[in-house]
């Protein structure tokens, strides 16, 4: 059985859990990190020397790094329709996955969600937060333009492209910040909310994280 380590409210773990839900994979989840601890245990470090989650063990194949896990599971379970053997087709999803990891997530999760929501007002770096908010607005406007002619980032069907970027939306639209008008992004978000796996693994309460930098 597929084994998964991580906190269910951890952003990168939720990417993996979302795809696991979409694929309907039986799995065993072990809480790790935060209050659950365990990341410095020798047995865990033997799986991931970086001491970070998520980590999976699929019948003896250990994989870490959330986007690598997404690619692995999609390729491992091709019947789910998340993987293509054609490099050009596959690149359409992978480019958005990489953009999400290198551009959107650092600006939103680190810059806004951590810098604003998870940091008490007295401790916030106002100019830095304002800069990240402006960056996120531009990212959302870019996504809005991209989604003007298709329902999902990768095209007509939900796919891997939607998971890393779409994961941000639950928190982006759920915290009190100024946001630009992005009707196509909002429509995309509504489509994602219709997916049972998104509701189960992504739409989890996060109010316990307000003003809290420690896990």
Overview of the molecule:
- The protein has 215 residues and is α+β, with helices and mostly antiparallel strands.
- Helix content is 51%, strand content 7%.
- The chain is built from 8 helices and 4 strands; from the N terminus they run βαβαββαααααα.
- Helix 1 (11-23) packs parallel to helix 3, helix 4 (87-117) runs antiparallel to helix 5 and helix 4 runs parallel beside helix 6 (162-172).
- The two termini are 28 Å apart.
Using brief descriptors, characterize the structure shown:
four-stranded mixed β-sheet; globular; 215 residues; alpha+beta; 8 helices
Please describe the topology of this protein.
Blueprint: E1 2-5, H1 11-23, E2 27-30, H2 42-47, E3 55-58, E4 61-64, H3 66-76, H4 87-117, H5 126-146, H6 162-172, H7 183-193, H8 196-201
Parallel strand pairs: 1-2
Antiparallel strand pairs: 1-3, 3-4
Structural class: alpha+beta
Number of helices: 8
- Average pLDDT over all residues: 96
Which series of helices and strands comes N to C? Answer: EHEHEEHHHHHH
Poorly predicted residue ranges = none
C-alpha-based Rg, rounded:
17 Å
Largest sheet: 4 strands, mixed
Choose one word for the global shape.
Answer: globular
Q: Describe the strand arrangement of the main beta sheet, using strand numbers.
A: 2-1-3-4
Query: What separation lies between the terminal Cα atoms?
Result: 28 Å
- What is the count of β-strands? 4
